[in-house]
Design a protein that fits this description.
18% strand; 7-stranded antiparallel β-sheet; Umud Fragment, subunit A; 6 helices; 7 strands
């Protein structure tokens, strides 16, 4: 293929759209699966959906964003961990507290984020943890807070205040409707705006020179303010643990 034909292909709006979509999808999924590999866990990022880990009750992430516990709406970064390396101790505001674990509730698909307050050992090997939310009066769930090591997803290594609210919002019915409405508006702008303004893509003149005057056909192109729906994929790939 000649350089001139390659140049015309690159200026083609449909080709640019395909390339852009492929690039966005590659970046999003590459980041997600790369994070899973790098952090050694299937859930590298989660949004906190309840306030059981907050020592400030009622829970208010907006009022206490930097208190060293977790709040509803926090985005937490998870790292896979060897159960033998988990430090277990109750929350201690003036000293070292136990590691915060994310685990699957036995017998359920529900994810829980609680602090390991005690190790359960057998023959010198850790086989389970007793966990408790910092804002709870006692261990659990599950019963007595007993969590076998095979249900542990990883431990929390970072929290980002407020950001998780975006994921939580997009997971409720109102958030889905808002996203659908935004997508429909963007599609309407992409297709209807050129018709209303009469603007043509930059390469339309080249096409007219090559083929002669042709009926105007609306073409699709990316505007600078367009946010592809693929940009929201990480939030749909990210489950929200319930810290009960």
């Amino acid at each position: 293929m000649s350089a001139s034909r390659l140049g015309r292909l690159w200026r083609d709006d449909s080709f640019q759209t395909v390339v852009m979509i492929f690039f966005i999808v590659s970046v999003v999924f590459g980041f997600w699966y790369g994070s899973r590999l790098f952090l050694n866990t299937q859930y590298p990022m989660l949004a906190v959906a309840s306030g059981s880990m907050s020592v400030t009750q009622p829970d208010s992430a907006w009022s206490y964003p930097f208190v060293p516990t977790l709040h509803t709406g926090d985005l937490i970064i998870i790292e896979g961990v060897n159960p033998q390396d988990v430090y277990a101790a109750p929350y201690n505001a003036s000293g070292r507290s136990g590691d915060i674990l994310v685990f699957q509730l036995p017998g359920s698909d529900e994810l829980i984020v609680h602090r390991a307050i005690e190790n359960v050992t057998s023959d010198g090997k850790v086989i389970a943890f007793i966990t408790q939310g910092d804002g709870n009066s006692g261990p659990g769930p599950p019963a007595n807070g007993y969590v076998p090591v095979q249900y542990v997803i990883g431990k929390v290594v970072m929290r980002i205040p407020w950001v998780g609210n975006v994921a939580l919002f997009m997971r409720n019915s109102t958030g889905v409707l808002v996203i659908v409405a935004i997508i429909l508006i963007l599609i309407l702008i992409e297709f209807a705006l050129p018709e209303v303004t009469g603007k043509k893509p930059a390469d339309e003149k080249d096409k007219l020179v090559e083929k002669g005057a042709q009926p105007e056909v609306p073409t699709q192109y990316f505007s600078e303010g367009y946010i592809p729906v693929f940009a929201f994929f990480p939030f749909y790939l990210t489950p929200s643990p319930l810290g009960c």
